[in-house]
Structures are given as C-alpha cells and as structure tokens.
Design brief:
Two copies of one chain form a homodimer. The first copy, chain A, is globular. In chain A, helix 1 crosses helix 2, helix 2 runs parallel beside helix 3 and helix 5 runs parallel beside helix 6. Chain A is built from eleven helices and 16 strands. Chain A starts with a strand and ends with a helix. Chain A is α/β, with parallel strands linked by helices. The first copy, chain A, folds into two domains: 266 residues, L-amino peptidase D-ALA esterase/amidase (4-Layer Sandwich), CATH 3.60.70; 120 residues, Roll (Ubiquitin-like (UB roll)), CATH 3.10.20.340. In chain A, strands 1, 2, 3, 4, 5, 6, 7, 8 and 10 form a nine-stranded mixed sheet that branches. At the A-B interface, helix 2, helix 8, helix 9, strand 14 and helix 11 of A face helix 2, helix 8, helix 9, strand 14 and helix 11 of B.
Chain lengths: 400, 400
C-alpha cells in the first residue's frame, strides 16, 4: 500500500534495496538496506520491553551519536532472547553492512523481526549483503519495504513532498507490523528518510511527537514486542536552512511527518493479523490527554469490543463497559457515544430509533467511534483492529 | 460442575431455588433465589466499573447494614446502562422478593446478568417469583446455580464441610461467568452460604482475602463487567462460637473458603468462552505481590500467549515478551520459565533438548506456567484461559 503525493517514489540522497538471502523460505525478500550518501542526522525510538532484542540494544547504543548513514534490516528472525551470542550476531550484522558499504560501522543501525529465540543465520546475511548493496537504488524503497515484512499482507509506504523555506523537501517512511501491535512501539518497524536538513535536537522532538500520535496510538492485539524500532534519517540534500524548533518550517515538517506516520500506522492496523475493520477511536472531553488515550486504548484493546465489530454488532454496552473499567471515574449520565456521527448512548442509556443507520455503518470497513465525556477538554485518538477467526488461525500456529 | 466433600449438597439454615420465568427463551431457568431462615451476617464485593449496573448500585447501598436474608438473581438481562428506570426496576425487584418472602426489603440483595442496555422485564420477574419462593428447598442449590448461567456451559458449585470449634460447619458457593472475566470482579457472580457463625468484621476481611486470591486472580478476555458481585451470607446455624479475627478458627474457615473460591474461579476460567485449556500461571521471586500479580496477568491476558496455548505451540517468546512489556524491569538473564516443571527459558535464551516432553505437556488441558524471577520473594497466581475460534464465534454474535 503506497500513500504518496509524488510521481516517483524516491528521496534525494538516499538509496534503498531488498533481496532474498534465504533467511525466509520460498525465495521471499528478507534483507533490506537503506543508505544515505552521507552520514545523516538521526533519531530513534525503541521498545520499552524488558526483554529487548539484541538489535534493539545495539541500536540504543548506536543512536547516541545521532549520526546514521545506513540501516540494514532482516525479517524472518528477530534475534531476540538469544543471550550473549545474539549480541555478537548483531554486532557482526552491523560490521557486515559497514564493510560492504565501506563506511564506519558506528554509522550503521540494524533491525531484526520475525521469530523469537532462534539465532540469526549470520552466514546467509553475510552471503546476501554484497548483492543487496549492488541492488541499492534511489527507486529501491518498495523492495526494502517488502523485505521487512513478516505476517504483513502488503508493504507499507507513505511519502509527502512539501515546500519548506522555498525548497522542495521529501519525507518517506516504510513500516512493517501486523501482530504484537501496541503502545510503546510493539512489533513494529518503521524507517523514515527525508532530504530535509533538520537540527538534531529538533528532529528528535518532532519525531517523538509524531510517533506518539501514530505508531504509539494503535492496537491490534495489546501485545508489545521485543524488537520495535522506529528511525528517521535526515540527509539534508534538499538544501533548506536547517529546521529549528518553534519555527514555521518545523510546523510544516511536523505536519508532513504526522501525515505519513498516521497513514503508515493506519495501514498497520488495517493489516492487523486477521483484521477486517479499522476502528478509529476518538475520546473527547477528558481531563488529560493521558486519560483520553487510556480510555481510547481500553476500548480498542477490549476483545469483546473487537469481536463485536468483527460480527457487525453495534454493541455499545461493551464499549462503555471497557471505558468504565480502568479506574477513571467517568460519569455515565454525561457520557455520549457515536459511531460515524450517529448517537448510540446518551444520558445513561442507549439511544433508540436509528438502528437502520447504525446497521449500515457497521458494514463499513472503517468506523469512527467517538466517546464524548464532560470531564475536561483533552482528547486522544487510537486506531484499533477487530478480532477475528483469522487472528486465531495466524497466531495459534505461527511458531516461536 | 460440583466440587464438594459432602454427601448431600445443602447448607443448614439456607434454602435455594431456580425457575424459568421467561426472561430467557426456550424455558431455561433464569431466576434464582437464596434465602436464609434468619437475617445472616453478610459481606459483598462489587465491580469497580464506572458504568455500574443498577443492581450493583442497589447492592452497594444494601450491604452497608451487613445483614442480608435473601438474594434474588436473574439472568438474561443485566439491567445495566438503563438510566434512572433501571434503578426503579432494581428497587422493584428487591421489593417483589421481599413481598413474596414476607421479609423486610432492606434484607434483600439482587443481582442481574445478561445483555446490557435492555430494561428488566419486571413483569416476568413479578409473575415468576411466587413459584420461585414455593420451589425453595435445602436441596435447591443446583437449581439456583443453573438459573444464574448466561453463556456458561455448566453450573458451578463448590462446597466443603469442616470442623470448627467442635462443630460441623458447611461452606458452599455457586458462581457464573464465562466471558468478560478479569480483575475487579469482571462479569462474574458468586454467592456463598455458610452456616458458620462469623463476626461481621472478620467475615468481610476473610471474604476480601479469598476473593483476591481467586475471583480477582483470573482472566478470560481482559474485560471487566458492569454487573459483577460476590456475596457471602453467614447464617450461624452451625452453633459454633462466632469466628473472630486472628484465631485458629478463622484460619480454618479461610482455608475452606479459599478452597471453594479457587475451585469455582478455576471452573469459570475452564468454562471461559470458547476455552479449551486452563493456564495456571505462577510468578515467583517478584519484588512485591502486586508486581507478581501484574506480571502473571500480563501473560494471562496476552492474546498471543492465549492463541499459542490454543494451538499447542510452546511459544515461550510470547510469554517473556508479555512479561517484559509492562514496565517492570525484569532482568532477562535471571529469569526462568517452566511448563509443568520443564524448563523453556533460562540464562537469557531458550532451553534445548526437551522438546518432546514439552510437546506432551502442551497436549494437556491444564498447564502450569511458572515464571521464576530473581528480584525478591513475592509471588502470585493467576488462572487464564486460551483464546480460540469459539471465543470469536460466541462474541461476534452475542447481542448487546
């Protein structure tokens, strides 16, 4: 799925590629590389899971310099729960990329996604990397997006071209993730490239902000992975004056970044394991943004709510029950619930008379759920998927 | 399912019954009554959901006197999210029971379970109650247990006879609940009768303790209901000296109460909507009991863990990932994981060589999952169900 306002998908100053190295069966692409012509300003966000995978531990250390020139990612093996050998393999993977690109290995980030608990087939990565480097091209973004997929049904790419300070600036992101999707980066990988010039501190803050409203506001199954990572590389080829905080330029940049982040995160939910519907949950009138988000998540995470949407059942009782269960003292009589603008619950009870309209809404593949509270002015938005038979099929038999 | 060490299921001083009043279709029992010969010492625990159903609000008020003589329960309609009319209906239901039993309505508790959002069919309850009162009998506990069922596959009863202070004392509990099962009483109703004489303050504390280790330590789907309630009535017919706190008698009473509570709560999980397996999760070596319970719950609630057990996949990666995701800084290298005593994860990585033993364990319908931490000495235990196709079937189409 590509969401782009550009004719041709490429980011000046970046090349990308993806090849099959034999980590996955069946000749599927499983090794991706993103390379900047020069070291780029970088920011990263990582899983907060206690059982961080080796590439995450490696990345947390690498990102401290805020300079990254290349990112190599493999799918098919997460290199997680692999003990000390896993760290050795992660180091080795970064060194392989650096060697083949002839750059300093301190400029290389790596990421892995796939099964937990198996050692990285480092030999295959070693053999596959020369061909991967050879395949690098400005047009290689789709190949890279394909190579990072696991249970994803399609690659996920979003891009925007905007004008900043009189210069054309491009932002492009690729992402993967279909299960284990939840706050704090879940099993989700996302890599963003931009040719904008952005000051390091400004990039970190804008990136964190955009992630908070996109990748950290989605839920498929409430599970957080050991391997999540989101990175942004700002190469600077656009020639704009470096973007600084609290400027009109930073606002334009953030808006474009938010657009592609939200677009990619919605793609992830829509592609949620077994998902048939996107539930777009908005909570308004909360006391704080944090409470609004907690309520939206409580609804989006509820197995009962998710199965009701799957079944096309406008089960508002489960929604208010989920919202009320997390310890925030919501006054029932001042709470309203709407699906696509149609009221379902108001004044402490269900609304009658619009059952046909609601039934039509339930058939759509994207449904907006608005919970209006009367406790304050804060709001939040969370994307959730439904819970289906296919989710069970996929996860009852996907190996460790 | 009956777990009892007695020949005949009855509690001196109590009568019970269950009839079909037409709230449910198909002539199924839907109205239950438990009546003590005299006002009994009582304690109750209620859902903490903000959207408390009318009978819960009614019960929270009634229990303040700590005196209850009768409990009437209907299934088929939860009388939840029914606004002010719901409260009127709840009051009316209590008055109907009191009138037919010729007792003070302040001695009557009521409970409702079933669909949210519909008004209580109070006319049917009114018509059904005389027959229900007529059916009351010392042997009526099974009928009552049947009448409180919703999606339950079988009634749930546990009873123990123990000797306290030279007297035979009986404890008996009935429970219902199959979905929306989670901490803080979830969609779960449980009613306990005992002929023991127990001081009011002592009863409240022992009841809270036993609930914390049983009904508040189970999870089917992570959803908390608007209607949960657990009540205990101590009638005193056994003639023992009233049980007081911190005595050997209170320890014996608590042990028996814990036994039947844990037995009933395991029945609920085993009967979890669509469940095929009971996952008995024990966390040891945590810093606090609260942290131990949070970790156990994080594992028991994870959709990925639950589907793996359904699929018979010993996916330890999902278990440690779930345990690590909740912000408690678990050191991976000092964490061990066992299924029925067989190690799966140790020293930061998976254990190899016992795959056959593990495969045999995965085929069992009860599996013990032990997570050994090295952070402290606290422990906790949680029962969880697996997540299956039948759960989706049941919940995608069960109406509001």
């Amino acid at each position: 799925m590509i969401d782009s306002n550009m004719e041709k998908l490429c980011v000046p100053g970046f090349r990308a590629g993806g090849v099959a190295s034999g980590i996955k069966n069946g000749g599927k692409k499983d090794l991706a590389l993103i390379a900047a012509d020069e070291p780029a300003v970088a920011a990263g966000i990582f899983t907060t899971n206690s059982f961080k995978a080796a590439p995450v531990l490696h990345g947390i250390r690498q990102i401290k310099s805020h300079k990254v020139q290349a990112v190599m990612i493999n799918s098919g093996c997460a290199n997680a729960a692999t003990g000390d050998e896993g760290m050795v393999d992660a180091e080795r993977m970064a060194a392989i990329a650096a060697g083949n690109l002839a750059i300093d290995k301190r400029l290389v980030m790596i990421a892995s996604t796939g099964s937990i608990g198996s050692r990285l087939p480092i030999g295959r990565i070693e053999e596959g990397t020369p061909g991967l480097v050879e395949s690098l091209s400005p047009d290689g973004i789709e190949a890279a997006a394909e190579a990072i997929m696991t249970t994803d049904r399609y690659p996920k790419i979003a891009a925007r071209r905007v004008s900043i300070g009189g210069k054309d600036v491009t932002l492009c992101g690729i992402a993967k993730g279909a299960g284990m999707i939840e706050p704090h980066m879940a099993t989700m990988l996302a890599f963003f490239m931009t040719d904008a010039s952005v000051e390091s501190d400004c990039l970190r803050r804008l990136f964190k902000k955009s992630m908070d409203q996109s990748f950290n506001a989605i839920t498929v199954d409430g599970c957080m992975s050991t391997n999540d990572m989101a990175l942004i590389l700002a190469g600077g080829k656009a020639g704009n004056r470096p973007i600084r905080r609290h400027t009109p330029e930073s606002a334009i940049f953030l808006e474009a970044l938010l657009e592609i982040s939200i677009s990619l995160s919605a793609m992830i939910v829509r592609d949620g394991e077994g998902a048939t519907k996107l539930i777009d949950i908005i909570v308004e009138g909360a006391r704080t943004r944090n409470e609004a988000k907690r309520i939206a998540y409580a609804v989006g995470r509820s197995s009962l709510v998710k199965t009701a949407f799957y079944g096309g059942d406008p089960n508002w009782g489960r929604i208010i029950s989920a919202a009320g269960a997390i310890g925030i003292p919501i006054p029932p009589h001042e709470t309203e619930l709407y699906f696509d603008g149609e009221p379902l619950f108001r004044g402490g009870r269900g609304v009658a008379g619009n059952e046909e309209k609601i039934a039509a809404i339930m058939k759509k593949d994207t449904i907006s759920v608005l919970i209006k509270l009367d406790m304050g002015t804060a709001k939040a938005r969370v994307f959730a998927s439904d819970l289906t038979h296919d989710y069970i099929d996929i996860n009852a038999h996907y190996h460790t």
